Amino acid sequence: MDEIIQEFILESREGLEQMALDLVELETNPSQSERVDRMFRTIHTIKGTCGFLDFEKLAEISHQGEVLLSAIRKGQSPIGRDTIDALLRLHDTILDILSVIETHASDVAYKMSVDLGEQLVTLAQDTPPATKTERTPTVDGPRPTPPALLPPLARQPNAWETSCLRWDWSISTPWFPHSS
Questions:
Q1: Which of the four pLDDT bands, split at 50, 70 and 90, describes residue 131?
Q2: CA 172, CA 69: separation in Å to the nearest integer?
Q3: Strand pairing partners for 167?
């Protein structure tokens, strides 16, 4: 087996060992953001390296775990029993895929569980109960009509456009002068 793959497996297992410890701690104290950050970095590193090494199945499930951990970090998804269980399943699944890679130098032989990926994505889209609210428009009266979209040359430039924006037609991109 390639030395890079061996190093990847070793480092991934070390990160996953720490992830297991972090998950146990999060069960008792879900407000420990440094543990979530560390788990995110572990999964992010695994996902990124999979892209380089062409381990598509491991990259896919790692990406779905990364999405959930990102939502937790941003406060968009709560840490509850379902989340901990899903992250433990992610942990075990990644270890299983690493074993397949170690044996076959590929993750193609691994039979992926579709429901884990769906569970991770669903949990990432969940909103904490305290922030679920129905939004109603706050504008009184009729909404203003948006201006008609006109081609750029069909209107006169406003003061801001004439003072600080020039158009380079040869490359069709705006040019903004630098402040001095």
A1: very low
A2: 40
A3: 174
How many C-alpha atoms does 23 have within 13 Å on its Cβ side? 22
Decide which of 50 and 158 is more confident: 50
DSSP string, 29-87: -TT-HHHHHHHHHHHHHHHHHHHHHT-HHHHHHHHHHHHHHHHHHTTSS---HHHHHHH
Domain range enclosing 110: 3-129
What is the DSSP-derived secondary structure letter of residue 154?
A: G
Over residues 59-85, the mean pLDDT reads 92
CATH of the domain at 115: 1.20.120.160
Instruction: Read off φ and ψ for residue 175, nearest 5 degrees.
Output: -120, 125
Q: Which of 131, 133, 18, 39 is nearest to 83 (CA)?
A: 39
Distance CA 47, CA 63 (A): 6
Q: Considering the domain boundaries, does residue 22 fall inside one?
A: yes
Instruction: State how many domains the chain has.
Output: 1
